């Protein structure tokens, strides 16, 4: 499933540059994750890098966007232009 940044975000700027899919951007008040781009780093890393670097642990699974590992990998392939 996609990840979501919650209200504990302190805008520390460490999550955005580590996202391999450019899914993280500054929102109106806190950083936000685009669920259409988030693959939880599947295909890039063993763990979501935003979660690894977040100093306040404000990144959670997004219950509005449930996806399996297989679905996340298929999304990565679509994003990178590869055939599924």
UniProtKB/TrEMBL annotation:
Its cofactor is [4Fe-4S] cluster. Residues 1-29, 31-64 form the 4Fe-4S ferredoxin-type domain. Keywords: 4Fe-4S, Electron transport, Iron, Iron-sulfur, Metal-binding, Transport. It holds the Pfam family Fer4. GO terms for cellular component: cytoplasm. One of its GO terms (molecular function) is 4 iron, 4 sulfur cluster binding. PANTHER family: PHOTOSYSTEM I IRON-SULFUR CENTER, PHOTOSYSTEM I IRON-SULFUR CENTER-RELATED. This is YfhL family 4Fe-4S dicluster ferredoxin.
């Amino acid at each position: 499933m996609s990840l979501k940044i919650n209200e504990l975000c302190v805008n520390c700027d460490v999550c955005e540059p580590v996202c391999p899919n450019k899914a993280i951007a500054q929102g109106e008040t806190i950083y936000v994750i685009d669920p259409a781009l988030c693959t939880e780093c599947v295909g890039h890393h063993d763990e979501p890098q935003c979660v690894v670097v977040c100093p306040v642990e404000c990144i959670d699974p997004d219950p509005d966007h449930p996806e399996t590992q297989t679905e996340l990998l298929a999304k990565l392939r679509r994003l990178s232009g590869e055939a599924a």
